[in-house]
From TrEMBL, chain A:
Any Gene Ontology CC annotation: nucleus
EC numbers, comma separated: 2.3.2.27
Disordered: annotated span: 34-64, 151-177
Catalytic activity: S-ubiquitinyl-[E2 ubiquitin-conjugating enzyme]-L-cysteine + [acceptor protein]-L-lysine = [E2 ubiquitin-conjugating enzyme]-L-cysteine + N(6)-ubiquitinyl-[acceptor protein]-L-lysine
Transmembrane residue ranges: 187-207, 233-251
Name the UniProt record assigns to this protein: RING-type E3 ubiquitin transferase
Organism of this sequence: Drosophila ananassae (Fruit fly)
One annotated GO biological process: protein ubiquitination
Cited Gene3D superfamilies: Zinc/RING finger domain, C3HC4 (zinc finger) (3.30.40.10)
Record keywords, A-Z: Membrane, Metal-binding, Transferase, Transmembrane, Transmembrane helix, Ubl conjugation pathway, Zinc, Zinc-finger
PANTHER family: E3 UBIQUITIN-PROTEIN LIGASE RNF5-RELATED
TrEMBL record, chain B:
Gene: Dana\GF25155
Pfam family, one: UQ_con
Keywords assigned by UniProt, alphabetized: ATP-binding, Nucleotide-binding, Transferase, Ubl conjugation pathway
Residue positions of the active site: C92 (glycyl thioester intermediate)
SMART domains: UBA, UBCc
Residues annotated as signal peptide: none
Family: Belongs to the ubiquitin-conjugating enzyme family.
All residue ranges annotated as the UBA domain in the record: 161-199
Record-annotated UBC core domain positions: 4-154
GO BP annotation list: positive regulation of peptidoglycan recognition protein signaling pathway
Listed EC numbers: 2.3.2.23
The protein, known as: E2 ubiquitin-conjugating enzyme
Amino acid sequence: MEQPELVQSLDLPSTSSLLTRRAACNQKGSTKAKGVSLEEAGSDGSEVTTTSSSTSLVGGNMPDSKVASLDSTGMELEEINKGNERESKDESLYDCNICLDTAKDAVVTMCGHLYCWPCLHQWLLTRPNNKVCPVCKSSINKDKVIPLYGRNSARRDDPRNRVPPRPAGQRTEPEAGYPNFGFGDGFFMFFGIGGFPFGLLTSSINIRERRPPVPGRYRGRNNGQTRNEDEQTLSRMFLYLAFILIAWLLFA
Amino acid sequence: MANMAVSRIKREFKEVMRSEEIVQCSIKIELVNDSWTELRGEIAGPPDTPYEGGKFVLEIKVPETYPFNPPKVRFITRIWHPNISSVTGAICLDILKDNWAAAMTLRTVLLSLQALLAAAEPDDPQDAVVAYQFKDKYDLFLQTAKHWTNAYAGGPHTFPDCDSKIQRLKDMGIDEHDARAVLSKENWNLEKATECLFS
């Protein structure tokens, strides 16, 4: 709903702010593309007033004396514009995807879909085992939705506390299958049968595998690269050790 | 919550009314009672299917927990389709069950049902008899589906052969719908149908 604000910022007499807002609604209700009508309104103040010609006002800078005539026809106009406002609201870009009303306590998911926090919370409660975005079915998480604070939103208390900067939309498939047999970063668990040297061999081969980079975790710290190099040297050492052991087993 | 269900249905109702599908007459929706909990939908049979030219009426019941739970939808118009019960009109469609999402609307539900008519899923049937015919005797399935569309949904294709067989059973004192159902089930074999009815 930034359009009314933009129009209001034009240098029109203060009493006309109500009118300009209506005018903006009129424009939005028309079939013109949103961007175009906004530009027209912004380029010239008189354009805004002429669109509301039904109020019998002549365009240009509105003299205060003529504002009175606006009030006489105001009631009727208000009713018409209420309808328009309603209609433009229906087409709003900022409607909650669940209640279809303008989002209150707005939150956005990592996949970029907007909801009222109460609506989304209710949805998550309804499907505790299958937490997916109602729009795109991407997996979502209570801790990973981002609250949105508009300029005039009075309530600043966060439904969930941390507010990371808004990221670009990222889509992840819902988790399926078994989790990895691993504990976080840098530790792998193995199941195997075999004597000591073979066990050692498997582990050294596993260590050689490049680990996928962990997003976010080491970003911003420089030791990530050196760590990796250290590990590679270490793994090579173990591999050589394993070969020596095998050779020893064969020839002994 | 019930309040939310009603306000959402009202919005969706408007959405359907303004949608281009209504202009093309492919979907329709109307109110049944004033409490907005029950509606009647109508979808046109999609082109290039045996349902083409038919109008299928649906019963839509909106639960109190809508939109967090799906609306209950059922065909009122009888239809011969693997995923729709030929007896009760119950629908087997994932989005009306587990795959429902709160962002879906009456419009998307109606369009999904239209898509279901165009793309049957015989491996996940609601009506096993129809599904079997679909897989085993596809030509006969097409004929039966067209015949049902003609008989119940105002479709254009008539099959004098089917009509005469139904008439024969009617002459024996069988209700027309029952006669049609049994004949369809028995692949339009009059003898088997008679046997089935009188045994």
